[in-house]
Design brief:
By secondary structure, the chain is α/β, with parallel strands linked by helices. The protein has helices at 2-43, 66-72, 179-190, 196-205, 212-238, 288-293, 307-313, 325-334, 340-362, 367-392, 401-411, 413-417, 430-446, 452-471, 475-485, and strands at 149-151, 162-164, 242-253, 261-271, 276-282, 299-302, 319-322. The radius of gyration is 31 Å and the shape is extended.
Length: 510
């Protein structure tokens, strides 16, 4: 009896140790995955595009990894193979077609070189032209406005009247900066991510000292000037039936505590159908901000996995939430090194969905044709991917990277698949993420905004510059034209100055 008891106790101890070992193995696996992800972020290739092993010579929509197919596909299941052709790129060993011609709008300076012989008795039969691209660095210059003053010399001494030329109205009253300089400062900061203190140093090298507070005041004045047009932009964006939304942090200097910063957020709304971008600065990331902004919105709203949107609009009548396939793909991409077979299968199927979207784009399909293509091709892939995810989830550890990826997909599968119901919709919200990228690049350079008001002005300028880039117009040309026209434009006609409707009176090269 004592022996049996001793054996039972020993078995219990062994079972307990085995359970501890199993827990440690799970923990080690999790830590190895975290270490692998950190190494990938620091040293790895940043592209999320998945390239399967042994890709076929011709691009097709059936690019699966054999091991994954054998695991996930039932025997005898009928599969549809889809392919399409596209223009073939120039082979590396082909003769180089020559460099692209330089744009016609660039000014030309011509240098004529004659042969080192007497050509007076020769017949000129042609010319060989070589174009070399040069640059002339920006130079500050001064425009002197001289207003002549006159009096009528024939009038009596006490009746002489003074006549003087009218003073042109500047963009900013009593400001020494002209339109071109103001636009240069804005483009340098919000397009080229050059903080004002660096611009101040550049001006100083030219022998012109402009205090940083003056530069800040000029930017603020332009923000105030554009405020009415920004409100027009806001109304135009929020009345659309399809929006993408995202948010990004923004450090703001806390005026009440020296040396401290406050974490605010830029909320971004993008209207893909009219290609307008709206930045809104808010002091937090809580649900009250999108609730207020989107209180009158109805239509499709596409977001990442932030739960605020689900809690606010998941069951709200008139709003249909869409998911972002790029975020789902990102989770599987992270799981590649931990579970290559399962992650590769999911990534291959998602890649097939993106190949369909690329096909529609390359063939310039309208919304109706894109909808038909998706219903014929993408629907089958989405059904298979959902079935595979449901089968695989019980077989994986929930806290593993592949477990998290499958769970993320299954929780949002319905939202991720809705894009195939309407040809106007996109497979992901990468457009809005691309729009927020300049903000992320800018804050790496200037680190924080000087005040909440300054951040609101930044939101205004980012909105217009982002919209200009989306509709394909040069932001500097738009700013130069619009900030000079706004003071003389009635509030009813401001809509005509929005980037998607803008027609300059005289297109100005900047």
């Amino acid at each position: 009896m004592d022996v049996e008891k001793l054996l039972a106790e020993k078995e219990a101890i062994i079972a307990h140790k085995e359970a501890i070992i199993a827990q440690q193995e799970v923990r080690n696996s999790h830590l190895e995955a975290e270490l692998s992800e950190l190494k990938r972020l620091i040293f790895g290739y940043k592209s999320e595009r998945f390239i399967p092993e042994n890709p076929p010579e011709q691009l097709s929509l059936d690019l699966g990894v054999e091991a994954a197919k054998q695991e996930a596909e039932p025997v005898g299941e009928e599969k549809e193979h889809i392919s399409y052709s596209r223009k073939k790129s120039t082979p590396q060993n082909a003769t180089h077609p020559g460099r692209k011609p330089l744009p016609d709008h660039l000014p030309r300076k011509t240098i004529i070189i004659e042969p080192d012989v007497d050509t007076s008795q020769m017949l000129k039969i042609g010319e060989e032209v070589t174009e070399i691209l040069e640059i002339q660095s920006a130079k500050l210059f001064v425009t002197r406005i001289v207003r002549s003053k006159y009096v009528n010399k024939q009038a009596e001494e006490g009746e002489k009247q003074l006549y003087i030329g009218s003073q042109p109205e500047g963009v900013i009253p009593r400001c020494m900066a002209g339109t071109s300089l103001l636009v240069h400062i804005l483009i340098s900061k919000y397009c080229d991510h050059l903080p004002l203190y660096r611009q101040q140093k550049i001006f100083k090298r030219e022998g012109v000292v402009i205090p940083s507070s003056t530069l800040s005041d000029w930017v603020a004045a332009i923000g105030q000037l554009l405020e009415p047009l920004y409100q027009k932009l806001r109304r135009e964006v929020l009345k659309q039936e399809y929006l993408m939304a995202d948010e990004s942090r923004m450090q703001v200097q806390d005026q009440s505590k020296s040396g401290k910063t406050y974490r605010g957020f830029m909320w971004l709304y993008y209207a893909p159908l009219i290609k307008l971008v709206l930045f809104e600065y808010q002091k937090g990331r809580g649900k009250q901000y999108p609730r207020e902004t989107l209180k009158d919105f109805s239509g499709y709203l596409q977001t990442d996995g932030y739960e605020v949107y689900d809690s606010l609009f998941g069951k709200k009548k008139g709003i249909t939430l869409l998911g972002c396939m790029a975020h789902a793909r990102r989770y599987f991409e992270k799981a590649l090194q931990q579970d290559k077979i399962r992650a590769s299968h999911a990534l291959t199927r998602i890649q097939e969905l993106y190949t369909i979207e690329r096909m529609a784009k390359e063939e310039a399909m309208d919304f109706e044709k894109r909808l038909t293509l998706r219903q014929e091709k993408a629907l089958l892939i989405l059904r298979e991917l959902k079935k595979w995810a449901l089968e695989q989830y019980p077989e994986v550890l929930p806290k593993s990277l592949i477990g998290k990826a499958i769970k993320y997909y299954l929780q949002r599968e319905e939202k991720l698949s809705r894009y195939i119901q309407d040809g106007r919709l996109e497979i992901d919200n990468n457009y809005v993420e691309n729009s927020i990228r300049p903000l992320a690049l800018g804050r790496k350079n200037y680190l924080f905004a000087g005040s909440h008001k300054a951040t609101q002005h930044a939101a205004i300028i980012y909105s217009f510059i982002g919209s200009c880039e989306k509709v394909g117009i040069e932001p500097g040309a738009w700013l130069t034209d619009v900030i000079e026209r706004i003071p003389n434009t009635s509030i009813q006609d401001l809509d005509k100055l929005l980037p998607h409707q803008w027609e300059p009176v005289n297109r100005i090269q900047t």
